[in-house]
Fold this sequence. Notes:
- The chain is an alpha/beta fold.
- It has helices spanning 12-19, 54-61, 97-101, 168-172, 194-204, 219-229, 246-252, 269-284, 294-300, 306-311, 319-323, 406-416; strands at residues 36-38, 42-45, 68-71, 78-81, 107-109, 122-127, 136-141, 148-152, 186-187, 190-191, 209-213, 234-237, 328-332, 350-355, 368-371, 380-383, 390-393.
- Among the domains are: 1-114, Alpha-Beta Plaits (2-Layer Sandwich), CATH 3.30.70; 186-244 and 304-380 and 399-416, 3-Layer(aba) Sandwich (Rossmann fold), CATH 3.40.50.1220.
- It is elongated, with a radius of gyration of 24 Å.
- The structure holds iron/sulfur cluster (3 copies).
- One iron/sulfur cluster binds at residues 58-59, 63, 65, 67-68, 92-98.
Amino acid sequence: MECGCPDIHECKLREYAIDLEVCPERVAGAHIKKEEEVNRFYVRNMDKCILCGRCVRVCDEVAGVHAIDFARRGFESVTAAQYYKDMELSECTFCGLCSQVCPVGALLERRVERLPHQDKMLTVKTTCPHCPVGCELVLNMDRERARITRITTDMDSVGSPNRGLTCLRGRYHFRSVEKDRLTQPMIDGKHAEWTEGIEKLAEALKDKTAIFLGASVTDQEISAIKAAARDRPVTAKGFGLGGVDAAELLASFDVDSPKTPKGKSKPNTADLAQKMTLLSKAVEFGKDSSGFAENLKTLYSMGANIRGLFDSGVVTHTHQEALKDAETVIFVDCSPGDFGFTKDALKGMKKILLASNTCEAYEGTFDIILPITAWAEREGTYTSAFGETKLPVHGGPSPPEGARPLRRIFAEAMRKLGVEIP
Length: 422
Ligand code: SF4
Ligand code: SF4
Ligand code: SF4
């Protein structure tokens, strides 16, 4: 039995029909053509719906939205949003849970369509790098581990802060892992070998250098960079918070930070993930997000490991001070814009970028560019923003040849200076 849709390896209807040797001719009947809607994130093909109700339940009980329910009666029954609205105009937050649980191809993520009829996918659990809520994600990959094909979640996962829920950013923003990848060092605008790139980084680490870190670097990468800066005229600074005090921000979510008022309970991260799904839709569709709390919006704009940076003592909002005597600036997995630096502010300094992807806005800005592994290819931990635990980070797809892990890059550069770092 086959209907030609990409859900072939997951379709339960097909699986049971084959097991029970169902003869399609015996169950044939009149065909009532039903709705088909293609939105930005998934396809709804009600012709394939078996009315199991799993999407309605998960939307209500896990996503907490109840954006869809059954409509009409008998053979004409479908699941639909209120007043049959398009999903984009409905309450749907595009969390993707309904398409994850749909047992047939009636709800299908659009991302899956580009790899039709492939074998069962390999899976690896990791932590979402996009914001400090720290949702657990399941990376689904093709058999060669060449690329992520979709993101799912484990609703039964013990200890998962989000309990299966993600916002649309966590669910769908995984293309960046393969898009515009940097695969060879660049020095003064020309391709260079890694040996030369490491030499240049080692030279920079002897200078008065300011290193700026993005908030998606792991705890282990922060430690390696801090070790490289130790006992030298090098400063390491964390992700730019745009003038927001990290301690105050974390305290506003009742985290275990020095400024947390005594006796306050820790936040419910599943609840926070739910708020993020709403905010995420507003941001993605360019809608008014003024109704959301400012601290939530700030949290949404940061990477996952803000707490790891904070605990390592490298978060600050006095970035300009770090630039004062610097002869060289190094941006690690972040850009000058994250810290509010204009091109003029960095004038006269040697500029080094360690990143996984190219960024048009900063083309021509950097003297040296070294390609690093992307978030989905890293191993280590993030520190939960809410203090209590370390969140595992596991690599899924294989990194492209030429991209290196941050710890290895800093260890090799320091070895040139006669220092071994862990
Ligand atoms: S994507 Fe999420 S919010 Fe939208 S209908 Fe599905 S489960 Fe409900
Ligand atoms: S989960 Fe799929 S098959 Fe079940 S009711 Fe929803 S759309 Fe139909
Ligand atoms: S809420 Fe944050 S951590 Fe969770 S999926 Fe969205 S961006 Fe990722």
